[in-house]
Write a structure and sequence with these properties.
10 helices, mainly beta
Length: 636
């Protein structure tokens, strides 16, 4: 059963209402409010159309609702909460002693109908669920998205496994005065284990939350669940971005992923099926204070209609590992799995476990991606090459081929993608093409895996990057939402890391439907600000920067690598130049002295800044020859 709520619109952005009613603090007040409302008959006034969404999250079956009233003439006669909506002007005819107004900032709305209220009626509203004023950025508009900069973090401590969140206080750089982080750690059953509110350090200072430190701070045992993170008093934008390292007591435990995307979606794609010697666990974090009913989460092979449903309830805010083999026992890599999520949870992580094929067994964590349900094929995309050159590009690293095997798997990521007309090209660090092939018009249920060693056989270069692009030689359709999964295998140790992302138009002055994408301001986005975290000791950070160009752009980048300590103080800076269409594989120790790196410390970071072009980056950690991690970067 899917939730009938709006969480995100690509036209309007994130919907703050579901965050406002689903916040852990709001859920506690909602329980009190519903107990009070269940004491007798009441009527509901739904001036803004929020009643149905509220009922999706909270069980209102115990309420004795005599009537529902609305303000908009177009809503009159519609069914709301099992009642036929009446005009609010009929409210005086009600004898119910209580009026429930399903809106925040309800004071003015109540004033508008005060003359219509039955004599002696008590009026209550969703303002009973409001967060404390100190947590708000804009108290005048409660549903301002800046009041709900939230995200869920997969947080595990125990069994030799640890998690470490890293970001920086970028909100103060946008003008925030005193932002803070409100955190609620919940166990696998959604029960609170610890709750705290810490002020963020100064502008640009690093923010690190380590599961080992949290465990020690609150005297906890092992846990595996969700860390609900709310950044309060922000400015700039409401996106909570972070890098998440998963590391362990064993040298072989190391992965990285990033923020969960705080808007639950209907579908997720890019979940790989297991190899014969693997298990793939899908980590589902219920994002709401309502249970996920049994039969509401399902898996199917991408492009296939048969869905296998999970016959188990997930408690409010609960965390559950679903073994994909329990639902799809015959699925095998490189097949892909589609996740039927029904807006019950944010973008999930998945964990791949080797079943004894290696000694010691290896584990890795990555994330699935949001599958769009609002797109249609765009007939103009095949016609844009004369103006946008390569058009949409999905760039990914080719790691040093002597040590690593680099694999590419195109992944359907919108419901309208019946086929994928694609080609894959490889380039050396200077942007010279060293291999390529048309993949044809792939069907939605394809399992076409490309080994880059086969693509660049005989090439002298050891590393570089690949680009997945549209190729309409055999026909086909495109919507611009081109995605792929990229897997990297250490040929010696057997350790694996993988990452997935989507295509954009890069470094073109012409714009098309908000591309080249700009994270701040209108398109085109032609500059770079990326965040490279260092991770816990003794791991060494690594970064792969790619300079993709849809059209010819500046011959070389002017990229500044700026080293910061944990307080946000710049220690050193180094400029590098990357060839247009090329890439740079580097580690901070390549450009910064040992003394500067010690001064930065494990909570330090590098900001990659370029005002001349948009770069795409990947980051990770190296543990010598034993293990590595890899994922795409974020910026702010």
């Amino acid at each position: 059963m899917a939730l009938n709520i709006e969480t995100f619109s690509n036209a309007k952005g994130g919907n703050a209402f579901f965050k406002a009613i689903g916040h852990p603090l709001a859920a506690r007040e909602a329980a009190r409010l519903l107990r009070d409302l269940s004491a007798g008959p009441l009527v509901v006034y739904d001036p803004l159309g929020f009643a149905k969404a509220f009922a999706e999250i909270y069980d209102l079956s115990n309420l004795d609702i005599a009537a529902v009233y609305v303000q908009d003439l177009e809503d009159i006669g519609s069914e709301i909460l099992g009642r036929q909506a009446q005009p609010v002007t009929d409210l005086p005819g009600s004898s119910a002693p209580k009026v429930f107004v399903t809106a925040f900032d309800a004071g003015r709305l109540i004033d508008h109908i005060r003359h219509l209220l039955p004599q002696g009626a008590e009026v209550v509203s969703l303002d009973a669920l409001r967060l404390p004023e100190a947590m708000l950025t804009n108290s005048r508009n409660y549903l301002d998205s800046l009041n709900f900069a939230t995200n869920l973090v997969f947080f595990r401590e125990g069994g030799g496994h640890h998690t470490r969140l890293a970001t920086a206080n970028y909100w103060s750089g946008y003008g925030a005065k005193a932002p803070s982080a409100w955190c609620c750690l919940m166990d696998e059953n959604g029960q609170p284990l610890a709750e705290w509110d810490d002020p963020l350090p100064g502008a640009g200072a690093s923010v690190v939350i380590d599961s080992k430190e949290v465990r020690e701070r609150f005297g906890l045992g092992d846990f595996c669940g969700s860390l609900f993170l709310h950044i309060c008093g922000i400015a700039g934008h409401d996106i909570v971005k972070y890098a998440l390292d998963t590391y362990g007591d064993s040298d072989e435990v190391l992965s990285c992923t990033h923020d969960a995307n705080s808007w639950p979606a209907d579908l997720y794609g890019g979940l790989p099926a297991p190899k014969e010697d693997e298990r793939v666990l899908l980590w589902v974090q219920n994002s709401h204070p309502a249970p996920v009913p049994a039969g509401s989460v399902g898996l199917n092979l991408m492009g296939e209609p048969e869905i296998s449903w999970l016959d188990r309830e997930i408690p409010p805010f609960g965390t559950l590992a679903i073994d994909t083999a329990d639902l799809l026992p015959a699925a095998r890599w490189p097949q892909q799995i589609e996740v039927q999520a029904g807006k019950h949870f944010v973008r999930p992580r998945y964990e791949v476990l080797a079943n004894g094929a290696m000694n010691p067994p290896r584990q890795r964590i990555a994330h699935a991606n949001v599958e769009r349900v609002d797109l249609k094929p765009d007939p103009r995309i095949p016609e844009l090459s004369n103006l946008l050159g390569k058009g949409f590009i999905l760039p990914a690293p080719i790691l040093p081929r002597g040590r690593f095997r680099s694999l590419a798997l195109p992944t359907p990521m919108s419901t309208c993608q019946a086929n994928l007309p694609l080609a894959l090209y490889a380039y050396d660090p200077e942007g010279k093409e060293i291999g390529g092939k048309s993949l044809g018009k792939l069907p939605r249920n394809h399992a076409t895996l490309v080994d880059i060693d086969d693509l660049v056989d005989g090439a002298e270069t050891d590393w570089g990057h690949m680009e997945l692009v549209y190729d309409f030689a055999e026909g086909g359709e495109a919507d611009g939402w081109l995605h792929g999964l990229f897997r990297y295998e250490d040929k010696a140790s057997g350790h694996i890391a993988e990452t997935s992302f989507g295509a954009h138009v890069f470094n073109a002055v012409l714009t098309y439907k908000s591309e080249p994408q700009s994270y701040a301001g209108r398109a085109p986005g032609l500059s770079t600000r990326l965040f490279l975290s260092f991770g816990p000791e003794p791991y060494a950070p690594v970064c792969h920067l790619i300079y993709p160009a849809s059209t010819p752009w500046h011959a070389r980048s002017e990229t500044h690598l700026m080293l910061y300590d944990q307080d946000g103080q710049q220690i050193a800076e180094h400029e590098v130049q990357i060839a247009c269409g090329g890439s740079l594989l580097w580690q901070p120790a390549d450009f910064f002295s040992a003394a500067d790196m010690r001064k930065a410390g494990p909570a330090g970071y590098v900001i990659i800044r370029d005002m001349t072009c948009r770069l795409f980056g990947y980051h990770g950690l190296m543990n010598g020859e034993k293990a590595f991690s890899f994922d795409h970067m974020f910026g702010f």
